[in-house]
């Protein structure tokens, strides 16, 4: 496995030279997506080397029967998983009667991949010598259209270099695919129909159990030197789940032959007749043609970049890192559909099974709120609202809660729990807190209160009820405690009184209580509807308050820090710096009991609380807790470095902030954790964005106003970003000398910079000096 082989470039991800060791990693890094579907960078032609095939369709899942060593009550019977979708990209190619396969070529020169993030396409080019001596130059461009989001396009060019060539193209679509990760080695797709007409072909299949119907389609054209030869297939190979069309071309040495393949999926989530929709999708793509589709793609991506780009001057690797993160986030989720969400691997791999984790609320929402229309973040909130009934069922049927208490799943595709380790499924309950926090954060940022009376309050009530029932009164402490949990730091299980969990539990109850008061005053009819629906009585509210007002928080007065959990100080407190590097990562080197006994922390835990509720604590408290906990943190979760980077910046520890920034932004590009072949860490990419905007830029929203306290790493000459704050776009450009603020539109924007009020007027940028 190779690390750190991507060439630095401002706008592209580039690999040069063919190395079988990098194939799976590059398949992840060069993945493409358009919010509706995604594709790992698998080769179109046959490849007999090691590969991880992955095509994905948003919202399509399969409930796999749970398989665990020792069944525990409360486990979900089935859990939904991301499915490898039928293959639409495949093109088997014969050249002078030999199947072309990069793994069997005798020579490969000038191999180059490029993922052009600015324009949204992926290309691969090389020269290869086949065993039969034929030398060819190949150039392939592939993209998933943003505008026609059911359609992908491939332009595959071959130029015979040393002799004429008989080229047989065998493009195919295939629903006979499997998942790398399948509990019972089952097939997940049931083929229904295989059809072809002329240059078009269709395979319709449905998922077993969930019965999502998908028509995978293709349309092929064969060209020479850019001119369509209007060839028809000479033959078809058909099985019950696959169809291959055969085209033959004789190509003179030096001429360029190409196949253009339009392909993709139409799904029953969006169409009643997927076959008819597939025909329409092909017609829409053909009407535009390859060149126009590519132009439209560039245009669509330039609109995305216009709002979401972050520029960094003087540090190409940092620039490439942040653009890669922003690009992947936009490839994964564009916010058009409230049934969809952001999986930790997006469309780049299967790991993490389901799509939605607390990552969305804790890490992703700020990025989408600030770089898109506010409806996008609202859609993400609505996703949870639509799954409230299932969260209530989960708490009641599986875990013994009552009276409308809701526990959202740790991992989900459809509202049902997808995870089955007791210490996570049953104990990592803090996720409920992040879902409530996101409602608060959405209102704080957008000022759109309407979400709370319309939808949010019901979610808050379910969550507050859960916390009220989950806490118990300790006679010994004369306070309420929360026992047997796993905090964000998954290197501790079944602990008592995780500070973060207790804090967010109390906060959720208090916040819900306040919103009930506000909604009753300002939206009485919504209040009435909600009280009737939830049967919430005053007496229950009093019980909630008792818990919130008397919650126990573990603390060390001597050290001046909150304790991650009861008994944390009993551990052998050897800081990470004194840990033998050969022992790391500890999750790969140590047995689980040893990890649990150790003081080592996977990701921000007490510090996650300081991140969410910064204003509740003083800078001195942050400093003490940061210095204490960071010294034990191994950052073995991708979600860890970003929070630490933000806090280090706010504590003026700029070297540290910068190191954490590089680690978060190039986690996948440099493959820090040696696992990128499984897919990219999509949700933590939003954390990278936060490290710049909230970390270095110091952006916060306080009292309905944007605040900044800009800082700049010494390694950079300057950087800039844009924020959509309540439908007004503000651009912030920071150098070592000054920060310049400018706004679009026609209205002034009042902001606070380093504690001072400033008004920014349209067309007159204001510069504030750095000191
Ligand atoms: C982290 C969780 C996170 C999950 C998915 C785990 O390694 O510990 O906090 O939700 O990955 O990103």
Description of the molecule:
Helix 5 packs across helix 9 (451-470) and helix 10 (499-522) runs parallel beside helix 15 (606-612). Strands 1, 9, 10, 11, 12, 14, 15, 16, 17 and 20 form a 10-stranded antiparallel beta sheet that branches. Strands 8-7-13-19-18 form a 5-stranded antiparallel beta sheet, with no helix packed on it. The protein is globular and about 85 Å long. The chain has 2 domains: 6-308, Beta-galactosidase, Chain A, domain 5 (Distorted Sandwich), CATH 2.70.98; 311-693, Glycosyltransferase (Alpha/alpha barrel), CATH 1.50.10.10. It is α+β, with helices and mostly antiparallel strands and 771 residues long. The protein has 19 helices and 33 strands. The structure holds beta-D-glucopyranose (BGC). Beta-D-glucopyranose binds at residues 344, 352, 357-359, 488, 490, 602-603, 637, 639, 683. Residues 344, 352, 357-359, 488, 490, 602-603, 637, 639, 683 line the site of beta-D-glucopyranose (BGC).
In this entry the ligands are: beta-D-glucopyranose
Helix-strand category: alpha+beta
- Report the sheet-strand fraction: 15-25%
Q: Largest sheet, if any?
A: 10 strands, antiparallel
For this structure, what is the CATH class of the largest domain? Mainly Alpha
CA-based gyration radius: 27 Å
Shape: globular
Q: List the total number of helices.
A: 19
SS elements, strand count: 33
- Uncertain spans, ≥5 residues at pLDDT below 50? none
The name of the CATH topology of the largest domain is Glycosyltransferase
Number of domains: 2
Tell me roughly what share of residues is in helical segments.
Answer: 25-40%
**Average pLDDT rating:** 96
Q: Architecture of the largest domain in CATH?
A: Alpha/alpha barrel
Distance between the termini: 46 Å
């Amino acid at each position: 496995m190779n690390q750190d082989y991507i060439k630095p470039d401002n706008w592209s991800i580039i690999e040069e030279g063919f190395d079988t060791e990098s194939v799976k990693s590059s398949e992840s890094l060069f993945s493409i997506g358009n919010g509706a579907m995604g594709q790992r960078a698998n080769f179109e032609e046959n490849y007999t080397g090691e590969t991880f095939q992955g095509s994905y369709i948003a919202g399509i899942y399969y409930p796999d029967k749970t398989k665990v060593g020792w069944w525990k009550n409360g486990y979900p019977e089935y859990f939904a998983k991301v499915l490898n979708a039928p293959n639409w990209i495949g093109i088997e190619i014969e050249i002078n009667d030999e199947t072309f396969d990069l793994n069997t070529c005798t020579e490969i020169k000038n191999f180059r991949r490029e993922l052009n993030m600015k324009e949204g396409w992926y290309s691969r080019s090389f020269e290869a010598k086949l065993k039969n001596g034929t030398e060819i130059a190949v150039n392939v461009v592939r993209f998933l259209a943003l505008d026609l989001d059911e359609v992908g396009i491939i332009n595959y060019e071959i130029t015979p270099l040393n002799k004429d060539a008989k080229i047989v193209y065998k493009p195919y679509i295939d629903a006979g695919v499997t998942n790398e990760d399948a509990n019972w080695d089952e097939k997940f797709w049931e083929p229904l129909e295989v059809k072809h007409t002329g240059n078009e072909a269709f395979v319709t299949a449905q998922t077993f159990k969930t019965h999502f119907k998908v028509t995978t389609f293709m349309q092929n054209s064969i060209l020479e030197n850019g001119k369509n030869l209007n060839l028809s297939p000479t033959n078809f190979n058909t099985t019950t789940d696959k169809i291959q069309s055969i085209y033959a071309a004789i190509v003179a040495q030096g001429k360029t032959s190409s196949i253009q393949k339009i392909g993709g999926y139409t799904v029953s989530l969006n169409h009643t007749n997927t076959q008819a929709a597939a025909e329409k999708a092909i017609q829409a793509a053909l009407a535009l043609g390859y060149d126009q589709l590519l132009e439209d793609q560039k245009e669509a991506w330039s609109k995305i970049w216009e709002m979401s780009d972050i520029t960094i001057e003087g540090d190409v690797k940092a620039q490439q890192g942040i653009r890669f993160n922003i690009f992947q986030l936009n490839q994964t989720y564009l916010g058009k559909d409230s049934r969809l969400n952001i999986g930790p691997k997006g469309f780049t791999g299967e790991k993490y099974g389901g799509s939605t984790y607390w990552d969305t609320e804790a890490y992703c929402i700020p990025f989408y709120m600030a770089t898109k229309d506010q409806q996008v973040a609202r859609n993400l909130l609505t996703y949870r609202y639509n799954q409230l009934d299932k969260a209530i069922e989960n708490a009641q049927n599986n875990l013994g809660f009552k009276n409308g208490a809701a526990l959202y799943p740790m991992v989900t595709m459809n509202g049902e729990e997808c995870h089955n380790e007791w210490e996570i499924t049953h104990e990592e309950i803090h996720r409920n807190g992040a879902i409530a926090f996101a409602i608060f954060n959405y209102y704080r940022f957008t000022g759109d209160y309407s979400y709370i009376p319309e939808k949010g309050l019901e979610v808050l009530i379910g969550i507050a009820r859960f916390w009220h029932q989950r806490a118990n009164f300790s006679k010994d402490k004369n306070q309420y405690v929360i026992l047997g949990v796993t905090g964000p730091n998954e290197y501790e299980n079944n602990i008592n009184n995780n500070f973060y969990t207790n804090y967010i539990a109390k906060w959720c109850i208090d916040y819900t209580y306040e919103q009930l008061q506000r909604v009753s005053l300002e939206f009485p009819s919504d209040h009435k509807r909600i009280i009737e629906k939830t049967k919430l009585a005053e007496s229950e509210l009093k019980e909630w308050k008792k818990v919130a007002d008397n919650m126990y928080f573990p603390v060390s007065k001597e050290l001046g820090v909150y304790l991650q959990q009861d008994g944390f100080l009993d551990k052998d407190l050897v800081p990470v710096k004194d840990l033998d590097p050969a022992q790391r990562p500890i999750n790969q080197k140590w047995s689980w009991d040893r990890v649990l006994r150790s003081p080592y922390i996977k990701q921000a835990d007490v510090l996650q609380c300081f991140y969410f509720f910064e204003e509740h604590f003083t800078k001195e408290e942050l400093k003490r807790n940061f210095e204490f906990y960071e010294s034990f943190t191994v950052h073995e979760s991708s979600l860890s470095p970003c929070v630490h980077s933000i806090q280090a910046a706010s504590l003026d520890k700029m070297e540290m902030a910068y190191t954490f920034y590089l680690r978060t932004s190039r986690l996948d590009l440099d493959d820090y954790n040696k696992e990128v072949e499984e897919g990219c860490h999509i949700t933590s990419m939003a954390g990278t964005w936060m490290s710049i905007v909230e970390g270095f830029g110091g952006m916060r929203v306080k009292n309905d106003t944007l605040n900044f306290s800009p800082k700049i790493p010494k390694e950079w000459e300057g950087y800039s970003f844009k924020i959509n704050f309540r439908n007004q776009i503000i651009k912030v450009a920071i150098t070592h000398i000054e920060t310049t603020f400018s706004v679009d539109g026609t209205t002034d924007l009042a902001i606070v910079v380093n504690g001072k009020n400033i008004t920014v007027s349209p067309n007159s940028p204001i510069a504030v000096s750095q000191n």
